[in-house]
Amino acid sequence: MSSESEENRLLAGPILGAVGGLVTLAYGAYEISLAEGAKSVASLGGFPVGNVAGAVDAGVAGVVLGLITICAAVGLWVSPRKHAALGALIIVLSVLSLVSVGGGNGAGLILGVLGGTCGVVIGPGHPYTGARGEPPSGAAAGAHFTRTGPPTSDTK
Questions:
Q1: 6 FRET partner, CA 20 to 30 A, in 14, 47, 83, 91?
Q2: Torsion angles phi and psi, residue 109, rounded to 5
Q3: pLDDT band with cut points at 50, 70 and 90 for residue 122
């Protein structure tokens, strides 16, 4: 397996997690703008609009959860040794966004959970990837990457 495909595999979690956080953040900001627009329309016409404050609170929660998810995804890219904890954090934040902003209309939830799962499962300790795409060394390397024992007549 080439190191380029292994590097892409290591980048899948951070990219999916960041895009999921971005979708959640954007949907939270959209929800805030809708609530503010409903307040201004209600003030013009004098009719009741329902729970506008709740929509603003949910939108703010979506923006905060999106920002934290993006930060965790960047942390997953910058510090791949902490892949399990940061991937789990991305999953938890994505599921929490389901409660506040409907998971960024569902897309943020799906992308965040996929990115977090990639972050948890595929990291520097994974047998098919090394640190930043280099093949691992030692016992975890297996026969795929290293040759052990004395050279045979097949090798040159």
A1: 91
A2: -65, -50
A3: confident
Q: How many CB atoms lie within 10 A of CB 141?
A: 14
Single pTM value for the model: 0.70
Tell me the two tokens of residue 129.
């990837």
Q: Residue 37: how many CB atoms within 10 A of its CB?
A: 12
Q: Is the predicted pLDDT of residue 78 greater than 70, yes or no? A: yes
Q: What was the pLDDT predicted at 33?
A: 85
Handedness of CA 104, 110, 116, 118 (dihedral sign): negative
Q: How many residues does the chain have?
A: 156
List of residues 6+ apart from 77 with CB closer than 8 A? 11, 14
CA 121/CA 13 separation, integer angstroms: 9
Return the residue matching tokens 């789990």. 88
Tell me the per-residue pLDDT of 17-71, one tens digit each, with 9 for 90 and over: 999 999 999 999 988 888 877 666 666 565 555 666 677 888 889 999 999 999 9
- What span, in angstroms and rounded, lies between the C-alpha atoms of 36 and 17? 29
Contact 113, 93 (CB under 8 A): no
